[in-house]
Amino acid sequence: MDKKTKEKLVKLIGNGHISYKDIKDNLPCIIELELESMVRQPPSNIDCLVQCSANIPLGQGNYHFLATDTFSLTSHGKDLLYEIQKEELVERHFKETMSLNRKVYIIAIIGAIIGVLGLIVSLLKG
Question: What are the residue boundaries of the structural domains of the chain, listed by start?
Answer without folding.
Answer: 3-125
